[in-house]
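I have been asked to look over a protein record a colleague put together. Thanks in advance; the entry in question is below.
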Amino acid sequence: MRLIPLLAALAFSGTVLAGPDDVVRSYPAQKVHDNLYVIHGPQGVPSVENQSFMNNPAWIVTADGVVVTDPGSSVQAGRMVMAQLKKTTDKPVTHVFNTHVHGDHWLGNQAVLEVWPKATIIGHPDMIRQAKDGAGAFWIKLMSDMTQGFTDGTRAEIPTVEAADGQEFRIGGKTFRIHSSTHGHSKTDLMIEMVEDRILFTGDNVLARQVMNLRDGSFKGVMQETERALALDARLYIPGHGKSGDRTLVEEQKAWFDILMPEVRRMYDEGMSDYEMKPVLAEKLKAFEGWAEWETNLGPMISLAILEVEQE
């Protein structure tokens, strides 16, 4: 008689080990272009409230199958993305692009491979190297810690195919051209251009109305990548976070940096400290104070900008 309660307890504990739930709450996919869908995740840092989901997974239905970009932050998020994808097509996922090493964008790879184990996953060579060297484990733990264990059970399914700057992948009648860098938001970044449709997936080199976290990146590099994105003159930009749109969202990011960096340099030359700069910049950047992560990232951004100015 004691065996039945024991088996029940073991079954329950197995469920707990897999995480509190196996799928994040559903977010609708928005059709933003012919056969192109985006789930615009909530903006903010991973948390218990958002169950770690806060990026913009997207997929393109091609003649041969589906191409996914950045399937989310965990296996639980990835499963939600796959469920939404299946509502739009019966075709299999053949390829996945990961835009950079930050785990909120690529730990959903596991959910793709659960359904389509032959899918090819593509990433920046330095992303692949970093993920193997410990970044994968770091992001898995960080997601678990920030969601109080909701994402437990996630594995780091690392890309197996490297993407070089200028390389073109011809998939299902579409040309996917790679614009990569080692100096931008994470220093492992891909921007992916759908050439025929004039659509650009920017990864986190461009965010829509969100103050960027640049702890792993370079102000100079992100500004260069922002200019690069504008020069490509896409019809539609899919940012890493925030709503997709036309070049206006990229121009807004450029305007932010065009105020921030010259002002930091000026005040640094005057001998001001970061805490003295913050109220001045808050006033000069007042037009942007409604952006996501304003309160969280403005101060750290100023401190990091000072460090970069000191290295110039």
Q: What stands out?
A: The chain has one domain: 21-247. Residues 21-247 form a domain with the Metallo-beta-lactamase; Chain A fold (CATH 3.60.15.10). The CA atoms of residues 103 and 111 lie 14 Å apart.
